[in-house]
C-alpha cells in the first residue's frame, strides 16, 4: 500500500517529506488547508502505527517531528469533538443509563435507507467507504487493552476474541468483510478506496485511533465501542435485508448477518462488563465514557447526513 | 471484586435484555430444535421477539418497556 493522495498544502508537504529518504518533516510549519487536508494527514500518520506504507520508511513511525505534527492536528481534532459534546449525567444504574443515553440519541439511519430505498451503486459506494474501517475492524480498540485494570481488560478481550474469530482466521470479522468485498466485485486490499472517501469517514477512523492510542482517552475508547456495538444489531439486520433486496452476494450479506447476532452479545459486554467494570474501578472516567459514546454517534450522524443528502438529491 | 476474587458468572441475566451464556452449550429452542453456541459468550433471547431464535438480535430494545423481559 502506498500513501494516499494529498488533499491540501499540509498533506502534500507531509507526504512528500515522508516519501523522501531523509523524511524531514521538521520544517513543516503549515496549517492545514481545510478539514480534508488535516484528516488525510492525520489518517496517514496514524496508519504508520498499523500496517504502514510501502513508500514510507518504517523508522518514521516514531520520528519526533512526525509525532509533533500529529499532536498538533490531534489537539485541534479533540477540541472540535469536545466542543460538539454536552456533558451529561447518566441515569443509574450505569448500564441502563448508558443504554438509554445511546437509545435517546436520534440520528438519520443509513441502514434504513439501504433496507428500502438505496440502489446498487449507492450500496457499493457505502461498502467502499466502510471498507476503511471494516478491513481493520476492532484493531483501534486493541490499543486500549494494556491501559486497563484487570476486570475491564479481561472483559474487553472476551469481546475482542470474538471479533478476531475466536482464534479461527476464517471467522475474523475483518476477513469476513474482505470476502464480502471480493464477492461483490470490489477490491479487498486495505485502503484501496482511501482516495474516494469523504472527510466524515476519515474523522470516524481518526477518532478511533485517537482514543485508542492515548491512555488518557482509554475511557472514551471504550465508550465509543459501547455506542458502536449498541447501534449495530438492528441496523445490521436492515443492511442484510437491503443487500438481499439488491441481490448482492451471500458473502456480503453473511457479514451483516453475523453482526446481528455477534453485536447483540457485544453490546451487553461493552456496556456491562467492559465500561461497567471500568467505571466501577475508576468512577471519574464516566464522563469520558459518555464523550466517547457521543463521538461515535455524532460522527456516524454526520456521515449519514452527508450520504443521504447526496443520494436523495440524485 | 469480592474477597474470593472477581465475580465471573457463567450466566448473566441482562435487565430488559437477553441472558448471556459463557462457554459452550447446547440450547434447545421453543420448537425443540437444538442449537450449539459458537462464540465465547452467547446471548439467548428472553423477550421472545427475536427473529434469530434462540439468540438475541437486539429486538427487545424496540419493544415498549412493559414488554421487555
TrEMBL record, chain A:
Entry-linked InterPro entries: Haem_Oase-like_multi-hlx
Protein name stated in the entry: Iron-containing redox enzyme family protein
Automatic annotation (TrEMBL), chain B:
MF GO annotations: 2 iron, 2 sulfur cluster binding; metal ion binding
Domain Iron-binding zinc finger CDGSH type, chain residue ranges per copy: 28-66
Keyword flag tRNA-binding: no
One GO location term (cellular component): cytoplasm
InterPro entries, per database record: FeS-contain_CDGSH-typ, MitoNEET_CISD
Top-level taxon: Bacteria
UniProt keyword Glycoprotein present: no
Keyword annotations of the record: 2Fe-2S, Iron, Iron-sulfur, Metal-binding
Annotated protein name in UniProt: CDGSH iron-sulfur domain-containing protein
Organism: Aeromicrobium ginsengisoli
Organism taxonomic ancestry: Bacteria, Bacillati, Actinomycetota, Actinomycetes, Propionibacteriales
